[in-house]
Amino acid sequence: MTFRLRVGYVGWVPHPQFLETAAADPALEIVKIPIDASTDEMVQQLSSCHAYYVMASRDELPKPVHVTSELLAKLPNLLMAASYGAGYDPCDPIACTEAGVLLLNQAGGNAEGVAEHAVGMMLACLKRMPDSHAMMKANTAFNRTQQMGRDLKGMTVGLVGFGNVGRRTAQILQLAFGCEVLACDPYVDAAVMAHADVRKVEMAEIYALSDVVSLHCPLTPETRGMVGAEAFAAMKKRVVFVTTARGSIHDEAALFDALQSGQVAGAGIDVWEQEPPPPDHPLLHHPNVIASQHIAGVTEQSRANITHIAALAFGDVAHGRLPPRIINPEVLPEWKERYRKATGFQLD
């Protein structure tokens, strides 16, 4: 059974692989909506679509076409929304469930790129690359002892979140650097972590025991603002803090204060409250910070992979199959009935 699925996206796709994979499936019709179109025009075009391929970065996508209850009320034909990446900040899962819309992400598709980026930031901070660079620019880098770094080998690294990226980060740390890896994730069993030679602990132990703390969790109501002044104060003195997760999980002002006091020795920051952050943001100018603009997963391989699996997911729905990586499985009973009415086909 096959149903011609009309898939809309706004602006651009992350990699040409999406269009190439979709073009190979005659059941998919892809609709490009210009990002400079008016809100009414964007909504009108999306209203004719069965699926919405959604930018994962909340500050890149115009707010009126974030997947909210307000937008969904205007899209009666929409059966599914799929994020560009593992994150889905512009999409409200509860609103999708209430509207009977399936929400997907591309979890795991960019795990290698993000994990490598996180470890690279750990190394940069421990080797004092950001402040050495700053000292050279200021013509004060004469005493190399003042720039003495530390080796990652044998350190204890605490991972907050143990999904696809956290697991790959743990593998790199263990195999390449012999690190002891701790992880906190309420949704992953201790046995699963033990199988990966990772010890499941609570957040308090992550903070107390880790030489490096690295965030790998999604932005949710429970993680928003989770790492603030109290958390930084509870961490080991001279900890290195790295985040390739999502902005708003850590408190940027509290991190700056912890860097100023020396509680945090260095920070690698790939994600921000506002993206990109304003050029006068204090963290961008701190000598112990290495910063990037949400690019951990922006590699040729990662982008090709996430777009390929997204196109395959749309193809699954067009051909009467449930796709993987469903964020809101509780919607399935209602969604299957909506699918039957829209396509005439019954899903098991």
TrEMBL record:
Domain D-isomer specific 2-hydroxyacid dehydrogenase catalytic: 31-328
Pfam families listed in its UniProt record: 2-Hacid_dh, 2-Hacid_dh_C
Residue ranges constituting the D-isomer specific 2-hydroxyacid dehydrogenase NAD-binding domain according to the UniProt record: 119-296
Single GO molecular function: NAD binding
Gene3D superfamilies: NAD(P)-binding Rossmann-like Domain
Keywords per UniProt: NAD, Oxidoreductase
Family: Belongs to the D-isomer specific 2-hydroxyacid dehydrogenase family.
Protein name: 3-phosphoglycerate dehydrogenase
Species of the source: Rhodovarius crocodyli
